[in-house]
Every structure is written in C-alpha cells, then in structure tokens.
Design a protein that fits this description.
Layout (H helix, E strand, L loop, with lengths): L31 E6 L5 H14 L4 E5 L5 H12 L5 H25 L3 E5 L2 H11 L4 H12 L6 E6 L2 H18 L6 H8 L8 H17 L4 E5 L4 H19 L3
Parallel strand pairs: 1-3, 1-4, 2-3, 4-5
Helix pairs in contact: 1-9, 2-3, 3-5, 4-5, 4-8
The structure holds 3'-azido-3'-deoxythymidine-5'-monophosphate.
3'-azido-3'-deoxythymidine-5'-monophosphate binds next to helix 4.
Amino acid sequence: MTSKNKPEKNLKLFNFPKDGKASKNVLNKGLLITFEGGEGSGKSTQCKQLVNKLVDDGVNSILIHEPGNTPMGEQVRKWIKSKNIKNPIAETYLFCAARAELCKSVIEPALDKGITVIVDRFIHSTIAYQGYGKGVSIETINNLNNIAINGLSPDLTILLDIDPNLSTNRINKNINIELSNFSDKKNKSKRESFEGNKYENMSLNFHNKVRDGYLEMANNDRSSWSIVGAHQTQSKVADSIWKRVKRLIESHKIN
Ligand code: ATM
C-alpha cells in the first residue's frame, strides 16, 4: 500500500471523499464501527489510526465525527460547544437531528457503496451524556435515536474507558496548550469559547455518571461492544482495537 492510498489528513466529508480508498476492497458491505468514551479518552487519535490501518488492510473506509460532517451537523457542533442550552431535552433533539442528517446523507450511502464507516460518537453518546449524565429518559432517547438512524445499527462499538480523574488531567494539559495559542487579542473570542466549553467544564460527578452509563451499556451487550482501557499507552490501546476489528473484518470478508 502506498501513501497515496491512505486517507487524507484533513477529512472533510460533506460528500463522498476520495480518502479512505483501498487498492482493492475486501468487503462487499460496509461496516459501521462506532467509538464511544469520555473526553480525554483518546478517541479521535484512535479513530484516525484505525481508518489508516483499515485502508492498508484493503477496507475502503471513512472517518466521521458527531455532531458534524454535514453543514447542519457542523452548526450543531458550534452551537453545542459554545452556547449554554438549559434544557437537556432540547440538547437531545439537536444531537438526534444532526444524527438523522448524517445517517441519511453520509453513513447510509457510504455503507451501500461498501465503504466502512468509523464514527467518533454515535447513538450511545446521547444515552450516556443526556440520559445517564443529565437525566433525560432513556426511553425518550431510544425513540429519538431510532427515528434518527432509521434502521442502521453499529456492527461494533468500541468503548475507550477511562477514569474521569485521569482524563481530567489530560484535558487540562490540552486546555493549557490551546489557551496559550489563543493568548493574543485577535484570538479573544476563540479563547473565550474554549474556556466556556461547557462539556469539558462539567463536574467530575457528571463525568462519572457518563462513564457508569457507558459501562452498563457495554456490559449488557458484550457481543456488540468492546471495552478498551484508555489509561494504557496509545499503542496498546490501538493493538486491542485492531485485534477486535480484525476479527470483525475476517467474519465479513468476501471469500
Ligand atoms: P467531542 O468533542 O468528543 O467530539 O464531543 C462533543 C461533546 O458533545 C462531547 N463533550 N464532552 N464531554 C459529548 C457531547 N455529546 C453529547 O452530549 N451527546 C451526543 O449525542 C454527542 C454526539 C455528543
């Protein structure tokens, strides 16, 4: 595999990308692999590594994140990150609306074309954050999720599990680096929006509830979930993910 076949670094997926194209696709049906976990669990890094490995292994793949990757999804991301939404139900609707758009315009068509889709956060984020974290009824979320995904369901969900005490340290380190980049006047608004990121500023208690929610969902459905300890080194985490994904790929390969 040459580097030309590797996904481009800056993935912008408002329509079908040329990134993620393997020389020969070994699957005739795309798989949906979702990543879940708290902030600071290293999800984004692991998602990028996985998509590279998949392409090297002959699996056409794209990487997307929620909310995002549609014009509407990007607006929802901006809104969620910077505005203080008072009602968790309103927040739930926003995430599910962005998800509905993403499923219809990116995920479904990609899977139909035999492209494997890696998603950084999906349905279980809403259950963990708005449900377990903020008390929205799980039944309501399941209903909205089902409307949004319209029959799609992940072939595998990888939970990067980390103690929020540990991830908070990681996040604070990153925040300090980011803030030092926004120290001049020109970047005042960026700095303010970063400092005001309400999710990262939520209490440890909230992040513990989110983690417990994730673990409960994963432990109740071990065949669809893989729990990986995100306190380990990046390469150990990547190895565990790859072993699990490889098994999934092998069971779907064209003979
Ligand atoms: P990322 O920064 O991890 O991409 O996610 C944005 C935030 O949106 C994330 N924050 N934290 N901590 C989790 C949150 N989120 C929800 O609360 N519900 C959802 O359904 C999704 C997709 C994300």
